[in-house]
Fold each of these.
Amino acid sequence: MSAPDPSVLDQAAGWLDEGRTVALATVIETWGSAPQPVGSQLAIDSQGNFEGSVSGGCVEGAVVTVALDVMESGAPRVLEFGVADETAWEVGLACGGRIRIYVEPLGGEA
Amino acid sequence: MDRATLDSLVEARKNRRAVALVTDLATGRQELVAREAVNGVAYADRLAEAFRFDRSGVLATDEGELFLNIFNPPLTLVVVGAVHIAQTLIPMARLAGYDVTVIDPRGAFASQERFPDVTLHADWPDEVLPGLALDARSAMVALTHDPKIDDPALTAAVNSDCFYIGALGSRKTHARRVERLKDSGLSEERIGRIHAPIGLSIGARGPAEIAVSIMAELTQTLRQGDG
């Protein structure tokens, strides 16, 4: 299924209702053998709790760190991970794929 | 994503409405576009295709990159015939993300005991199908081998927007079916939408393997179209 997992958004909405600060990460592009299809989402709160998946575990840690920055700054960011990346040794994709992820703050005023 | 957009998105999914969340990756500006409103946007063709193939992705425009995130409602599979193969096919279809409805007027077949956790209609297809609204996210398989049950179901399906229609039966059985459907006034083009014999040709033996071949053909049609 390339359809996003609806439970992630439901969870995120629930967190906002509890007054938590939340960011949302979404896979926007993949090349090669990426573990999660485009549209996959990960919701993160300011305590570092997360729900969903953007890579099957390979880069979630790094995404959570960036998400905390995004919550603070309020500015969305585009991240790229892959074997060609210089950070590959730390958080690269073991499968050899490459992914782009959009990280945005969630739940602000329009 | 602001709260109002998130709420609209959650609401659309609850009501099984297809929507796309379009994000300008440079500015973070977002817009929800309903599937029925695609003609109102500049990149209508690309968005329509993204809905059709359930394919989210980045679109490069003169103004910068847009991310089209497609939120389609769940797929539905209508199984006509509460037969043995259906019992194997249904769990596979559910794993692949389909909501399943079973229709069989024969009460002994369409029992909740044989088909737990699915929507079950122990009625004739022509009584049930008008209420089901077969759309571009629906598939139908006719599995009874009984023309009295299969033919009206297939007629309704070929006249609908459903993306896949399959019918169980040999080439010979299908040739006779085609004759009957032609006699009933259906065009060859409509009849040609029926995949028969059903399933990809993988040498399947027994209900489980036939179910795999049906799911494979369904998936192929969903993801790559009929061409």
Amino acid sequence: MQFLQTVTVQDIGAIVPELELAVFGMFLLIFDLLVKEKRKLGYFALAGIAASALFLYRLRSVEFSAYGGALSLDPFAIFFKLIFLLAAALSIAISLKYLDIERENHGEYYALILFATMGMMFMAGAVDLVTLYIGLETMAIATYVLVGFLRSNQRSNEASLKYFLLGAFSSGILLYGMSLLYGISGSTRFVDIAEALSRRPITDPISLMAMITLSAGMFFKVAAVPFHQWTPDAYEGAPTSITAFMSVAVKAASFAMMVRIFMVAIYPLRPQWVTIMAAVSIMTMTIGNIAAITQSNVKRLLAYSSISHAGYILIGFIAGNETGLTAVGLYLLIYTFTNIGVWAVIVALRRKDVIGEHVDDMAGLFFRHPTAAVLMLIFLLSLAGIPPTAGFIGKYFLFAAAIETGHNVLAVIAVLNAAISVYFYFRIVVSMFMRDATEKTGLTLAPGLNMALGVAIIFTMLIGIYPDPFIALARHAVILGF
Amino acid sequence: MDFFRQHILTIVAFWPLAGMIVLFFFNKENKTLIRIWANFVLIAGFVLSLPLWFWFDRNTSDQMQFVENIPWVQTLGANYHVGIDGISLLLIMLTTLLGPLAVLSSWTAIENRVKEYYVFMMMLQVGMLGVFISLDFFLFYVFWEVMLVPMYFLIGVWGGPRKLYAAIKFFLYTLVGSVLMLLGILALYFIYPSIAAQHADIAAQFGVGNTFDVLAFHAIAPYLAYNFQYWIFLAFFVGFAIKVPMFPFHTWLPDAHVEAPTAGSVILAGVLLKMGTYGFLRFSLPILPEGTKHFVPMMITLAIIGIVYGALVAMMQPDMKKLVAYSSVSHMGFVMLGMFALNPNGLNGSIIQQINHGISTGALFLIVGMIYERRHTREIAQFGGISNVMPMFAIVFLIMTMSSIGLPLLNGFIGEFTIMMGALQEHLAWAVFAGSGIVLGAAYMLWLYQRTMLGKIENPANEKLLDLNLRELATIVPLIIVAFWIGLYPAPFFRILDKPVNKIVAKVRPDFFQGAPRLNAENGAVR
């Protein structure tokens, strides 16, 4: 097998950013025993992410296939690794004070985030089934624990268990598909698989079986209908900072994995999977949005909205051209900033005696804290895709990809869904701006949270008003990548 | 001065934004200062826009003037491309005129959350002006959408009892229309390079890459396939028809108008609705001539239903504001009828009538607002004989009623007359229906005037009403002046419109000026 070949220095060099995260994570576990003030560990974790980003930056122009073709270091991988690091850093920043309030400030929290991020980074670079699966499970196991991190909270425990069971189940299905692919091609490398598949007839039952099980596993991971049921529970039960992390980083990682698998490994079966994906996309957008309308818990509402966003992103795969894949990357980048912003405001709402998760908890936020309310408004407009926010640019690209490739019906359904989504986002707006304040205590704003909010709002507006460099970045990643 | 002249459109459009940013630093408790500042900003905005009127070259009013074209999102081919022709000029002047009047009318009407209120008024002004100056579809779309948010808040925060319902209805309706319009824009965007590649003259002027340039789309209009035009027309139609609003997409309008604060209604009726008709004029007609002709029967039918239905429903309203709101549906039906007659008279009349509607209906909403501020009711049955205590108010109201029903010497007459000429030129039946709308309009407006103003005061609550003060007169006198100006001497307006209108007609009906074929009402084909 290829990855038993001799490991060279270059191979090690290619994964320095990941190794570096692992080292910082392990040190965090040790320091946890020594350091009394746990918040310092958070800063240490941030330093680890910064160092990893630095190493990643130094690798920016390297095109390299490491470990005998098991791991690829290309613009695509680097683009997504950047998103993960960004999401991890912002999630840690909003956790610092939040964990104090929840009285669950422990070092392993930060270590687990670093490990999960490391797993994601392997996923983005994986061009081989084994590498991919190891990355995926590293991420998933760390996330299962993080979801149940509020040990004394029943909701959190339940969420973790549910997420774990369904996650393990979906990994099993995914693995089943992978084993079929290996059986067909005799290789775990994506390029070999693609080659083997293209030699078989397109209606070959084994190929189809592999494709269907693989797709089902993937749809589980990105929370696409009909495999979305775990999402609201997991999002609601998890600590809000972890919900933020899941909704951006885990989602981005799963989509990065999907791009490689669908656009490389099983690309020969595209005529088959594109139909399935179109159906899944339409259902995901519509069911996610409609279910969101009735939610009164903001975390559940945003969970359903995140399901519908997964449906929009699938359009990029269906289009499958340069615009479509650029859209996937760009959308995830934009979604990272916007969504972290939204979750940061919700984290700030969590105070001593206030849960801060109900739509009513936001009542009159504008009168108590106008800045937070206005920021939230801008983030919500971005999620809804109203210009001149970044969200519009993301949606624009997806719709453009659909029109460009002649998927007009899909485009119409997508834009109508975008309109529906405004309805429930504006329930939050109504609560914030048009109702009297029920809660008098101020928000919990800490330096880390403020920083995260600042970064989120700057990029949400900047990408909306001057999107050129970001489009170029995403396009560069998909043209030269994989 | 040169700098000002070169960037005048940008300055006019973004001046309220600058004012808005300054407003953020005001203490929200100091309401008087905020009001003074807001009034100053929008009055200055009007003054800034005056040079447009004087510097505009009437001899080439079909050419884009004061053009600025700066690369913006280069990867997409979207530019900051602005410029105006005669049609946009009039609508911009209308916007900068109504803006300060609406703000002035809010002086005592808005007491809570004053700072936010003016922030949203200024934001709204930026969005509307942006729509009228954009020559880039992407830019246009951004402005078009931006304007939704402030209007949502104006209705939702300062509106009447059912404000939340009305606000979200307004938002969702418009959004559904505009996202479908976006798909139409995208389809044009993707088809452009293939057409430009085949026609050297277009490629030389606008390049072969993807572009959102409206003028480039105008250039490729003759080469767009019939089937393609058909679908794109429908996509645009949804966006624009909801905004106009045309029957049966009008149901958001009465709700929005009734719940909105006075200034919101003035802006809504005065300017926002014109964004829809402007869209048809600027995009649907010149870019999709074949699609337009195909849909003439449908458009005319909907316009006529709008005229008659709007008028009949208006007649039955017990609430003054709702009456004026439904009269808007009727009047906008006129505007659409004139436009889709697709001849110079019809189009000229349609555009003049857009301005007139802005003036008259804007003024009527101000008038209703004035009486509402005094009595906190708009129910017609509550009034009667008001002219006895408020003579000045009665005169103003009378003038505006006359303007609304199209009495000669006033603006409405000019518009309606020209539209009638245009309609008659195409089909007798169209003119007959239009005429019936005028009769019905006279009926409901005069009946309204009679029930509220004439006779003896029966309701004791009305005995002590104060007549208009100077501020209120200041909000309405400019509109009266313009109403008389258009009514007595419309030539300057027609002079500005003549050339751009002929240009549109030449695009939609290339053979019109050789023998004036008529549009057949039965199948829409040119005879």
